Amino acid sequence: QVQLVESGGGLVQPGGSLRLSCAASGFTFSSYYMSWFRQAPGKEREFVAGINRSGGFTRYADSVKGRFTISRDNAKNTVYLQTSSLKPEDTAVYYCGRTATVTGLMFENDYWGQGTQVTVSS
Questions:
Q1: In terms of Cα–Cα distance, which of 22, 32, 26 is closest to 78?
Q2: SS3 assignment for 61-101
Q3: Binning pLDDT at 50, 70 and 90, where does residue 105 land?
Q4: What per-residue confidence (pLDDT) applies to 56?
């Protein structure tokens, strides 16, 4: 069965960095776009970044552009989200997802991981 397992979250000071990882299994990883979303307390889940099958195409939410980088290693069945210059407003649970369809800039996922908490605070 499809499994997505995120790791790498934690508590970091403003301006700091974290690298999130999402290990995938149960499907042909290289055949799917992948994406990261996040959900802050009291808010809806929002798109953060997406990547195509080869890693040569990426998309970012305006709020993280220039600070976050999505990448993938198809040999390791893993997608990454490198975060930097973190702000308190980046605090959220971060989820990776297997992307079923991409319509314009909309990444729609059919499977999700359990999420990893990122807290940005001094």
A1: 22
A2: CCCCCCCEEEEEECCCCEEEEEECCCCHHHCEEEEEEEEEE
A3: confident
A4: 95
